[in-house]
Amino acid sequence: MAVRPDQLSLRAAGFSANENGGTAQVVFDPQFSFRRPFTVDYATQDGSRSERRLRPTNGTIRFVRGQTNATITVRILDDNIFEGLETFTVALSNPTAGATIGPRSTTTVTIVDDESVTPGRLDLQFDPGRGADDTVFTIHSLEGNGLLMGGRFTTVNGVSHNGIARLNSNGSLDAASLQRS
Fold first, then answer.
1. Does 126 map to a domain?
2. Could you tell me the CA-to-CA distances from 91 to 48, 94, 108 in Å, in that order?
3. Is 19 helix (H, G, I), strand (E, B) or coil?
4. Which of 40, 105, 120, 159 has a 20 to 30 A CA-CA distance from 89?
5. Separation between Cα atoms, residue 66 and residue 49, nearest integer Å
6. What is the CATH number of the domain that holds 105?
7. Which residues share a beta bridge with 167?
């Protein structure tokens, strides 16, 4: 990406933020050091289903003499709904004092849903102990409240469970299911 010495440009074509992180940070750099102050406007725009996920943000960044970068902070709203990845954009406009906008005037921010399970990601909080003593054929997620598993096993963690058991979200046996076994 060729940027002229007097241009403003977003640092990257994309940024990411965790849904439960509270904010997204978007950094942009002027490719120059102006000798006088200047401003540039910014605004967020909804992307894929993100209208509930962020507080629309717009404003003006004021650069002082010699400043070399700025960060835009966008508030992200957390919920308990499985949504997958969502996106929104941040766009720059209206530079003043002779500054111009370079080839990267917009960027996409991806919100990483904290209720989603990423294939291949290890959950370090989940510890099923010794587990089942034989084959587990199926596992059903109970929407954040643990797992229900079924199979050819007769015990789970040394406790009698004839082919069906409920685990808490951390992998331990559900106390209520122990009473029903």
1. no
2. 16, 10, 9
3. helix
4. 120
5. 39
6. 2.60.40.2030
7. 147, 173
